[in-house]
Amino acid sequence: MLGDDESWKAMVCFCETVMSQKEADERLWLTFGASLAFLIIGLVRGYSASSIPSIESLDPDIIQHSEQKSWIGAIPPLGAFLGSMCSGPLMQRAGRKRTLQLTAPLWCASWLILGFAPNFSLILLGRILSGVCVGFALAPVQVYVSECCDPEIRGRLGSLPTLSMSLGILISYVAGNWLSWRYLAFLSALFCVALFFVLLPLPESPVWLKSRGLDDTYAIKWLHLSQHAVATVKEDNEENNGKSEEPKSLFTREVFFSSAVIKPLIVGFALLFFQQFSGIDSVIFFTVEIFQEAGSSLNAMAATIIVGAVQLFSNGVSTVLVDRSGRRPLLLLSAVTMCASMLSMGCAFFFKFEHNSYLGYLPIASLVVFMLGFSLGFGGLPFLLLGELFPTHYRSQLSAMASAVNLLSMFTVIKSYHALERVLTSAGTFWMYSAFCAVAFFFVLFMVPETKGKSLAEIEQQFRGKKNKNDINLQSVQTKF
Protein backbone atom coordinates (compact mmCIF):
# COMPACT_ATOMS: atom_id res chain seq x y z
CA MET A 1 0.00 0.00 0.00
CA LEU A 2 2.85 2.36 0.76
CA GLY A 3 4.21 1.82 -2.70
CA ASP A 4 0.79 2.49 -4.16
CA ASP A 5 0.53 5.75 -2.18
CA GLU A 6 3.93 6.86 -3.41
CA SER A 7 2.98 5.98 -6.99
CA TRP A 8 -0.24 7.97 -6.64
CA LYS A 9 1.61 11.00 -5.24
CA ALA A 10 4.15 10.80 -8.05
CA MET A 11 1.35 10.67 -10.60
CA VAL A 12 -0.39 13.68 -9.04
CA CYS A 13 2.89 15.61 -8.95
CA PHE A 14 3.52 14.76 -12.61
CA CYS A 15 0.02 15.87 -13.64
CA GLU A 16 0.39 19.15 -11.73
CA THR A 17 3.73 19.77 -13.45
CA VAL A 18 2.23 19.07 -16.89
CA MET A 19 -0.75 21.34 -16.19
CA SER A 20 1.50 24.13 -14.88
CA GLN A 21 3.64 23.80 -18.01
CA LYS A 22 0.54 23.94 -20.22
CA GLU A 23 -0.73 27.05 -18.42
CA ALA A 24 2.67 28.73 -18.69
CA ASP A 25 2.88 27.86 -22.39
CA GLU A 26 -0.48 29.51 -23.09
CA ARG A 27 0.47 32.72 -21.28
CA LEU A 28 3.81 32.70 -23.08
CA TRP A 29 1.98 32.29 -26.41
CA LEU A 30 -0.18 35.32 -25.63
CA THR A 31 2.84 37.35 -24.53
CA PHE A 32 4.90 36.44 -27.59
CA GLY A 33 1.93 37.18 -29.85
CA ALA A 34 1.39 40.63 -28.36
CA SER A 35 5.16 41.24 -28.26
CA LEU A 36 5.30 40.96 -32.06
CA ALA A 37 3.87 44.49 -32.06
CA PHE A 38 6.86 45.72 -30.04
CA LEU A 39 9.21 43.89 -32.40
CA ILE A 40 7.67 45.91 -35.25
CA ILE A 41 8.13 49.08 -33.18
CA GLY A 42 11.81 48.12 -33.03
CA LEU A 43 11.83 47.75 -36.82
CA VAL A 44 10.37 51.28 -37.11
CA ARG A 45 13.03 52.70 -34.78
CA GLY A 46 15.91 50.91 -36.48
CA TYR A 47 14.80 51.52 -40.06
CA SER A 48 16.27 54.99 -40.59
CA ALA A 49 19.78 53.99 -39.45
CA SER A 50 19.89 51.24 -42.08
CA SER A 51 17.78 52.80 -44.84
CA ILE A 52 19.25 56.30 -45.13
CA PRO A 53 22.72 55.11 -46.25
CA SER A 54 20.98 52.69 -48.65
CA ILE A 55 18.81 55.45 -50.15
CA GLU A 56 21.84 57.71 -50.59
CA SER A 57 23.70 54.91 -52.33
CA LEU A 58 20.95 53.45 -54.56
CA ASP A 59 18.57 56.41 -55.07
CA PRO A 60 20.59 59.58 -54.46
CA ASP A 61 17.97 61.80 -56.11
CA ILE A 62 15.45 61.12 -53.33
CA ILE A 63 17.41 62.81 -50.51
CA GLN A 64 18.64 66.29 -51.42
CA HIS A 65 19.91 67.60 -48.06
CA SER A 66 20.57 66.62 -44.45
CA GLU A 67 17.31 68.10 -43.15
CA GLN A 68 15.40 65.45 -45.11
CA LYS A 69 17.46 62.73 -43.43
CA SER A 70 16.62 64.24 -40.07
CA TRP A 71 12.88 64.11 -40.82
CA ILE A 72 13.03 60.47 -41.96
CA GLY A 73 14.37 59.59 -38.53
CA ALA A 74 12.35 62.00 -36.40
CA ILE A 75 8.84 62.03 -37.90
CA PRO A 76 7.63 58.60 -36.63
CA PRO A 77 7.42 59.87 -33.01
CA LEU A 78 5.15 62.69 -34.20
CA GLY A 79 2.87 60.18 -35.91
CA ALA A 80 3.07 57.97 -32.83
CA PHE A 81 1.99 60.91 -30.66
CA LEU A 82 -1.17 61.26 -32.75
CA GLY A 83 -1.77 57.52 -32.71
CA SER A 84 -1.37 57.25 -28.95
CA MET A 85 -4.03 59.93 -28.40
CA CYS A 86 -6.47 57.77 -30.38
CA SER A 87 -5.45 54.42 -28.88
CA GLY A 88 -7.00 55.10 -25.45
CA PRO A 89 -10.62 55.41 -26.64
CA LEU A 90 -10.02 52.67 -29.23
CA MET A 91 -8.77 50.03 -26.80
CA GLN A 92 -11.44 51.02 -24.27
CA ARG A 93 -14.22 50.43 -26.82
CA ALA A 94 -12.77 47.67 -29.04
CA GLY A 95 -10.55 45.90 -26.49
CA ARG A 96 -6.81 45.41 -26.21
CA LYS A 97 -6.50 42.46 -28.60
CA ARG A 98 -8.78 43.91 -31.28
CA THR A 99 -6.94 47.23 -31.22
CA LEU A 100 -3.72 45.40 -32.06
CA GLN A 101 -5.44 43.40 -34.80
CA LEU A 102 -6.87 46.56 -36.36
CA THR A 103 -3.41 48.13 -36.28
CA ALA A 104 -1.69 45.25 -38.14
CA PRO A 105 -3.16 45.88 -41.68
CA LEU A 106 -2.53 49.63 -41.42
CA TRP A 107 1.04 48.94 -40.32
CA CYS A 108 1.53 46.58 -43.25
CA ALA A 109 0.27 49.30 -45.61
CA SER A 110 2.78 51.82 -44.20
CA TRP A 111 5.69 49.45 -44.93
CA LEU A 112 4.40 48.79 -48.45
CA ILE A 113 4.19 52.55 -49.08
CA LEU A 114 7.83 52.81 -47.98
CA GLY A 115 8.89 49.88 -50.12
CA PHE A 116 7.30 51.24 -53.31
CA ALA A 117 7.93 54.98 -52.60
CA PRO A 118 9.30 56.77 -55.70
CA ASN A 119 10.08 60.06 -53.92
CA PHE A 120 10.78 61.70 -50.57
CA SER A 121 7.15 62.73 -49.95
CA LEU A 122 5.90 59.14 -50.01
CA ILE A 123 8.79 57.99 -47.83
CA LEU A 124 7.73 60.61 -45.32
CA LEU A 125 4.10 59.45 -45.61
CA GLY A 126 5.11 55.84 -44.99
CA ARG A 127 7.23 56.83 -41.99
CA ILE A 128 4.56 58.98 -40.33
CA LEU A 129 1.92 56.28 -40.94
CA SER A 130 4.20 53.67 -39.36
CA GLY A 131 4.59 56.07 -36.43
CA VAL A 132 0.80 56.38 -36.05
CA CYS A 133 0.67 52.58 -35.76
CA VAL A 134 3.40 52.67 -33.11
CA GLY A 135 1.12 54.97 -31.12
CA PHE A 136 -1.84 52.63 -31.63
CA ALA A 137 0.14 49.62 -30.34
CA LEU A 138 2.39 51.01 -27.61
CA ALA A 139 -0.07 51.14 -24.71
CA PRO A 140 -2.40 48.23 -25.66
CA VAL A 141 0.44 45.69 -25.75
CA GLN A 142 1.66 46.42 -22.24
CA VAL A 143 -1.84 46.69 -20.78
CA TYR A 144 -2.91 43.46 -22.54
CA VAL A 145 0.04 41.47 -21.21
CA SER A 146 -0.22 42.89 -17.67
CA GLU A 147 -3.95 42.12 -17.45
CA CYS A 148 -3.47 38.52 -18.66
CA CYS A 149 -0.77 37.40 -16.20
CA ASP A 150 -0.62 36.34 -12.57
CA PRO A 151 1.34 38.79 -10.35
CA GLU A 152 4.15 36.31 -9.70
CA ILE A 153 5.19 36.19 -13.37
CA ARG A 154 3.86 39.54 -14.62
CA GLY A 155 7.28 41.18 -14.40
CA ARG A 156 9.01 38.59 -16.55
CA LEU A 157 6.26 38.32 -19.14
CA GLY A 158 5.62 42.07 -19.05
CA SER A 159 9.29 42.69 -19.89
CA LEU A 160 9.20 40.50 -23.01
CA PRO A 161 7.66 43.23 -25.23
CA THR A 162 10.64 45.51 -24.56
CA LEU A 163 13.00 42.60 -25.24
CA SER A 164 11.15 42.11 -28.54
CA MET A 165 11.60 45.79 -29.40
CA SER A 166 15.36 45.44 -28.91
CA LEU A 167 15.28 42.34 -31.13
CA GLY A 168 13.40 44.32 -33.78
CA ILE A 169 16.05 47.05 -33.73
CA LEU A 170 18.80 44.46 -34.08
CA ILE A 171 16.96 42.68 -36.93
CA SER A 172 16.64 46.00 -38.75
CA TYR A 173 20.35 46.75 -38.28
CA VAL A 174 21.51 43.29 -39.39
CA ALA A 175 19.03 42.92 -42.28
CA GLY A 176 19.82 46.48 -43.40
CA ASN A 177 23.41 45.43 -43.84
CA TRP A 178 22.31 42.95 -46.54
CA LEU A 179 19.02 44.29 -47.95
CA SER A 180 18.29 47.53 -49.77
CA TRP A 181 15.93 49.99 -48.10
CA ARG A 182 12.98 48.80 -50.21
CA TYR A 183 13.42 45.11 -49.39
CA LEU A 184 13.95 45.96 -45.73
CA ALA A 185 10.49 47.58 -45.77
CA PHE A 186 8.97 44.50 -47.43
CA LEU A 187 10.58 42.25 -44.81
CA SER A 188 9.09 44.43 -42.06
CA ALA A 189 5.62 44.15 -43.65
CA LEU A 190 5.75 40.35 -43.23
CA PHE A 191 5.94 40.77 -39.45
CA CYS A 192 2.72 42.84 -39.55
CA VAL A 193 0.95 40.01 -41.40
CA ALA A 194 2.24 37.56 -38.78
CA LEU A 195 0.95 39.83 -35.98
CA PHE A 196 -2.61 39.74 -37.34
CA PHE A 197 -2.77 35.95 -37.62
CA VAL A 198 -0.95 35.17 -34.36
CA LEU A 199 -3.53 37.23 -32.43
CA LEU A 200 -6.54 35.39 -33.92
CA PRO A 201 -6.76 32.48 -31.42
CA LEU A 202 -5.89 34.58 -28.35
CA PRO A 203 -8.58 35.65 -25.85
CA GLU A 204 -9.44 39.23 -24.97
CA SER A 205 -8.25 40.68 -21.66
CA PRO A 206 -10.55 39.41 -18.87
CA VAL A 207 -10.17 42.77 -17.08
CA TRP A 208 -11.53 44.60 -20.14
CA LEU A 209 -14.34 42.07 -20.62
CA LYS A 210 -15.42 42.49 -17.01
CA SER A 211 -15.28 46.28 -17.24
CA ARG A 212 -17.64 46.13 -20.25
CA GLY A 213 -20.06 43.77 -18.50
CA LEU A 214 -19.10 40.86 -20.79
CA ASP A 215 -18.48 37.24 -19.87
CA ASP A 216 -14.82 36.74 -18.96
CA THR A 217 -15.10 33.03 -18.07
CA TYR A 218 -13.51 31.74 -21.29
CA ALA A 219 -10.60 34.19 -21.10
CA ILE A 220 -9.85 33.31 -17.45
CA LYS A 221 -10.08 29.59 -18.21
CA TRP A 222 -7.87 29.87 -21.32
CA LEU A 223 -5.24 31.84 -19.39
CA HIS A 224 -5.60 29.73 -16.19
CA LEU A 225 -5.63 32.91 -14.09
CA SER A 226 -5.94 32.77 -10.32
CA GLN A 227 -8.48 34.80 -8.33
CA HIS A 228 -5.53 36.85 -7.10
CA ALA A 229 -4.94 38.07 -10.66
CA VAL A 230 -8.54 38.94 -11.54
CA ALA A 231 -9.56 40.54 -8.23
CA THR A 232 -10.83 44.10 -8.56
CA VAL A 233 -11.27 47.07 -6.25
CA LYS A 234 -14.85 48.18 -5.65
CA GLU A 235 -15.81 51.80 -6.15
CA ASP A 236 -17.60 53.80 -3.46
CA ASN A 237 -20.83 53.84 -5.48
CA GLU A 238 -20.78 50.04 -5.61
CA GLU A 239 -20.47 49.89 -1.82
CA ASN A 240 -23.35 52.27 -1.23
CA ASN A 241 -25.76 50.91 -3.85
CA GLY A 242 -24.76 47.27 -3.78
CA LYS A 243 -24.46 47.24 -7.56
CA SER A 244 -22.04 48.32 -10.26
CA GLU A 245 -22.66 51.63 -12.03
CA GLU A 246 -21.04 53.21 -15.06
CA PRO A 247 -17.81 54.89 -13.85
CA LYS A 248 -17.58 58.66 -14.05
CA SER A 249 -15.60 60.34 -16.80
CA LEU A 250 -11.87 60.55 -16.24
CA PHE A 251 -11.87 64.25 -17.06
CA THR A 252 -14.03 65.35 -14.15
CA ARG A 253 -12.34 67.19 -11.29
CA GLU A 254 -13.42 64.56 -8.78
CA VAL A 255 -11.90 61.65 -10.72
CA PHE A 256 -8.82 63.20 -12.36
CA PHE A 257 -7.48 64.67 -9.11
CA SER A 258 -8.33 61.67 -6.96
CA SER A 259 -5.35 59.88 -5.39
CA ALA A 260 -6.11 56.70 -7.37
CA VAL A 261 -5.57 58.61 -10.65
CA ILE A 262 -3.29 61.60 -10.12
CA LYS A 263 -0.56 59.76 -8.13
CA PRO A 264 0.05 56.94 -10.64
CA LEU A 265 -0.34 59.44 -13.48
CA ILE A 266 2.50 61.60 -12.11
CA VAL A 267 4.68 58.51 -11.60
CA GLY A 268 3.95 57.14 -15.09
CA PHE A 269 4.45 60.49 -16.85
CA ALA A 270 7.69 61.19 -15.01
CA LEU A 271 9.23 57.77 -15.69
CA LEU A 272 8.51 58.00 -19.41
CA PHE A 273 9.78 61.60 -19.48
CA PHE A 274 13.04 60.62 -17.78
CA GLN A 275 13.35 57.61 -20.09
CA GLN A 276 13.62 59.92 -23.09
CA PHE A 277 15.55 62.80 -21.49
CA SER A 278 18.26 60.38 -20.46
CA GLY A 279 19.30 61.02 -24.07
CA ILE A 280 18.62 57.49 -25.30
CA ASP A 281 17.32 58.37 -28.76
CA SER A 282 20.01 60.96 -29.34
CA VAL A 283 22.52 58.22 -28.57
CA ILE A 284 20.82 55.70 -30.88
CA PHE A 285 20.24 58.16 -33.72
CA PHE A 286 23.73 59.68 -33.62
CA THR A 287 25.75 56.58 -32.76
CA VAL A 288 27.85 56.97 -35.91
CA GLU A 289 28.98 60.47 -34.96
CA ILE A 290 30.02 59.32 -31.48
CA PHE A 291 32.08 56.47 -32.90
CA GLN A 292 33.72 58.83 -35.37
CA GLU A 293 34.61 61.24 -32.57
CA ALA A 294 36.23 58.34 -30.72
CA GLY A 295 38.46 57.56 -33.70
CA SER A 296 37.18 54.00 -33.90
CA SER A 297 38.19 51.83 -36.83
CA LEU A 298 34.75 50.21 -36.85
CA ASN A 299 32.50 51.14 -39.75
CA ALA A 300 29.09 52.72 -39.15
CA MET A 301 27.04 49.56 -39.63
CA ALA A 302 29.24 47.56 -37.25
CA ALA A 303 28.78 50.31 -34.66
CA THR A 304 24.98 50.22 -34.90
CA ILE A 305 24.93 46.42 -34.71
CA ILE A 306 27.05 46.53 -31.53
CA VAL A 307 24.62 49.00 -29.97
CA GLY A 308 21.64 46.82 -30.94
CA ALA A 309 23.28 43.66 -29.57
CA VAL A 310 24.18 45.34 -26.26
CA GLN A 311 20.62 46.61 -25.87
CA LEU A 312 19.14 43.16 -26.58
CA PHE A 313 21.49 41.48 -24.08
CA SER A 314 20.72 44.02 -21.35
CA ASN A 315 16.97 43.71 -21.83
CA GLY A 316 17.35 39.95 -21.52
CA VAL A 317 19.12 40.37 -18.18
CA SER A 318 16.38 42.75 -17.01
CA THR A 319 13.69 40.23 -17.97
CA VAL A 320 15.35 37.56 -15.83
CA LEU A 321 15.83 39.85 -12.81
CA VAL A 322 12.62 41.90 -12.73
CA ASP A 323 10.53 39.41 -10.69
CA ARG A 324 13.46 38.55 -8.41
CA SER A 325 14.90 41.93 -7.52
CA GLY A 326 11.79 44.05 -8.12
CA ARG A 327 11.20 47.17 -10.20
CA ARG A 328 12.67 49.84 -7.91
CA PRO A 329 16.19 48.36 -7.49
CA LEU A 330 16.56 47.93 -11.26
CA LEU A 331 15.34 51.49 -11.92
CA LEU A 332 17.72 52.91 -9.31
CA LEU A 333 20.69 50.95 -10.66
CA SER A 334 19.74 52.01 -14.19
CA ALA A 335 19.59 55.71 -13.26
CA VAL A 336 22.99 55.61 -11.50
CA THR A 337 24.64 53.80 -14.42
CA MET A 338 23.19 56.18 -17.02
CA CYS A 339 24.17 59.22 -14.95
CA ALA A 340 27.80 58.06 -14.64
CA SER A 341 28.12 57.09 -18.32
CA MET A 342 26.64 60.38 -19.59
CA LEU A 343 28.97 62.25 -17.24
CA SER A 344 32.00 60.38 -18.59
CA MET A 345 30.89 60.90 -22.18
CA GLY A 346 30.64 64.64 -21.54
CA CYS A 347 34.14 64.59 -20.06
CA ALA A 348 35.46 62.77 -23.11
CA PHE A 349 34.13 65.47 -25.44
CA PHE A 350 35.16 68.34 -23.12
CA PHE A 351 38.79 67.28 -22.71
CA LYS A 352 39.11 66.02 -26.31
CA PHE A 353 41.39 63.11 -25.58
CA GLU A 354 43.76 62.15 -28.36
CA HIS A 355 42.50 59.38 -30.63
CA ASN A 356 45.67 57.32 -30.20
CA SER A 357 45.22 57.30 -26.44
CA TYR A 358 43.24 54.68 -24.59
CA LEU A 359 41.06 57.51 -23.32
CA GLY A 360 40.11 58.21 -26.93
CA TYR A 361 37.82 55.20 -26.65
CA LEU A 362 36.05 56.61 -23.60
CA PRO A 363 32.98 57.65 -25.67
CA ILE A 364 32.61 54.07 -26.95
CA ALA A 365 32.97 52.60 -23.46
CA SER A 366 30.53 55.19 -22.10
CA LEU A 367 28.04 54.38 -24.84
CA VAL A 368 28.17 50.64 -24.13
CA VAL A 369 27.78 51.19 -20.36
CA PHE A 370 24.93 53.62 -21.00
CA MET A 371 23.07 51.08 -23.15
CA LEU A 372 23.61 48.39 -20.49
CA GLY A 373 22.26 50.66 -17.76
CA PHE A 374 19.36 51.99 -19.80
CA SER A 375 18.17 48.55 -20.93
CA LEU A 376 18.49 47.12 -17.43
CA GLY A 377 15.80 49.42 -16.02
CA PHE A 378 14.55 52.54 -17.77
CA GLY A 379 14.44 50.84 -21.16
CA GLY A 380 11.50 48.56 -20.39
CA LEU A 381 10.21 48.98 -16.84
CA PRO A 382 8.34 52.28 -17.46
CA PHE A 383 6.31 50.46 -20.13
CA LEU A 384 5.71 47.54 -17.74
CA LEU A 385 4.51 49.97 -15.08
CA LEU A 386 2.03 51.48 -17.55
CA GLY A 387 0.03 48.28 -17.27
CA GLU A 388 0.42 48.03 -13.49
CA LEU A 389 -0.05 51.47 -11.94
CA PHE A 390 -3.25 52.84 -13.47
CA PRO A 391 -6.73 52.01 -12.06
CA THR A 392 -8.80 49.48 -13.98
CA HIS A 393 -11.59 51.77 -15.17
CA TYR A 394 -9.21 54.38 -16.61
CA ARG A 395 -6.21 52.23 -17.57
CA SER A 396 -6.82 52.57 -21.32
CA GLN A 397 -6.99 56.36 -21.35
CA LEU A 398 -4.18 56.95 -18.86
CA SER A 399 -1.81 54.51 -20.59
CA ALA A 400 -2.46 56.21 -23.92
CA MET A 401 -1.82 59.65 -22.39
CA ALA A 402 1.44 58.45 -20.83
CA SER A 403 2.54 56.98 -24.17
CA ALA A 404 1.80 60.33 -25.83
CA VAL A 405 4.05 62.12 -23.32
CA ASN A 406 6.79 59.58 -24.01
CA LEU A 407 6.54 59.97 -27.79
CA LEU A 408 6.41 63.77 -27.71
CA SER A 409 9.50 63.71 -25.48
CA MET A 410 11.20 61.37 -27.95
CA PHE A 411 10.57 63.76 -30.84
CA THR A 412 11.83 66.71 -28.74
CA VAL A 413 15.05 64.90 -27.78
CA ILE A 414 15.83 63.81 -31.37
CA LYS A 415 15.13 67.18 -32.99
CA SER A 416 16.83 69.25 -30.28
CA TYR A 417 20.14 67.35 -30.19
CA HIS A 418 22.05 69.40 -32.76
CA ALA A 419 20.56 72.67 -31.51
CA LEU A 420 21.66 71.82 -27.95
CA GLU A 421 25.06 70.82 -29.29
CA ARG A 422 25.47 74.28 -30.86
CA VAL A 423 24.38 76.09 -27.69
CA LEU A 424 25.79 73.86 -24.93
CA THR A 425 28.51 72.03 -26.93
CA SER A 426 28.58 68.23 -27.06
CA ALA A 427 30.01 68.01 -23.55
CA GLY A 428 27.31 70.27 -22.11
CA THR A 429 24.56 68.30 -23.86
CA PHE A 430 25.71 65.00 -22.36
CA TRP A 431 26.11 66.61 -18.93
CA MET A 432 22.53 67.85 -19.22
CA TYR A 433 21.39 64.27 -19.91
CA SER A 434 23.44 63.16 -16.89
CA ALA A 435 21.61 65.69 -14.70
CA PHE A 436 18.24 64.34 -15.85
CA CYS A 437 19.40 60.83 -14.92
CA ALA A 438 20.39 62.06 -11.45
CA VAL A 439 16.95 63.61 -10.94
CA ALA A 440 15.40 60.34 -12.15
CA PHE A 441 17.30 58.45 -9.42
CA PHE A 442 15.84 60.59 -6.63
CA PHE A 443 12.38 60.51 -8.19
CA VAL A 444 12.40 56.69 -8.16
CA LEU A 445 13.84 56.63 -4.64
CA PHE A 446 11.08 58.79 -3.13
CA MET A 447 8.06 58.45 -5.46
CA VAL A 448 7.92 55.08 -7.22
CA PRO A 449 6.26 52.21 -5.29
CA GLU A 450 7.37 48.59 -5.59
CA THR A 451 4.82 46.49 -7.50
CA LYS A 452 6.66 43.14 -7.46
CA GLY A 453 4.29 40.26 -6.68
CA LYS A 454 1.24 42.50 -6.19
CA SER A 455 -2.01 42.07 -8.07
CA LEU A 456 -3.31 44.98 -10.13
CA ALA A 457 -6.08 45.43 -7.55
CA GLU A 458 -3.58 45.62 -4.68
CA ILE A 459 -1.59 48.28 -6.54
CA GLU A 460 -4.74 50.30 -7.16
CA GLN A 461 -5.75 50.00 -3.50
CA GLN A 462 -2.29 51.20 -2.43
CA PHE A 463 -2.70 54.44 -4.38
CA ARG A 464 -6.17 54.95 -2.93
CA GLY A 465 -4.57 54.89 0.50
CA LYS A 466 -7.56 53.43 2.31
CA LYS A 467 -9.44 50.19 2.83
CA ASN A 468 -13.07 49.96 1.79
CA LYS A 469 -15.32 47.79 3.95
CA ASN A 470 -16.67 45.68 1.14
CA ASP A 471 -13.43 45.32 -0.79
CA ILE A 472 -12.33 41.84 -1.68
CA ASN A 473 -9.76 40.68 0.86
CA LEU A 474 -6.85 40.63 -1.53
CA GLN A 475 -4.38 39.21 0.95
CA SER A 476 -6.55 36.16 1.64
CA VAL A 477 -6.92 35.17 -2.01
CA GLN A 478 -4.50 32.36 -2.77
CA THR A 479 -2.44 32.30 -5.91
CA LYS A 480 -1.82 29.32 -8.15
CA PHE A 481 1.91 29.26 -7.46
UniProtKB/TrEMBL annotation:
Pfam name, any one: Sugar_tr
Annotated ranges, domain Major facilitator superfamily (MFS) profile: 30-452
Any one GO molecular-function label of the UniProt entry: transmembrane transporter activity
Assigned keywords, A-Z: Cell membrane, Glycoprotein, Membrane, Transmembrane, Transmembrane helix, Transport
Annotated protein name in UniProt: Major facilitator superfamily (MFS) profile domain-containing protein
Organism (species): Euphydryas editha
Similarity section: Belongs to the major facilitator superfamily. Sugar transporter (TC 2.A.1.1) family. Trehalose transporter subfamily.
Domain of life: Eukaryota
Coiled coil start-end: none
PANTHER family: FACILITATED TREHALOSE TRANSPORTER TRET1-1-RELATED, PTHR48021
Gene3D superfamilies cross-referenced by the UniProt entry: MFS general substrate transporter like domains
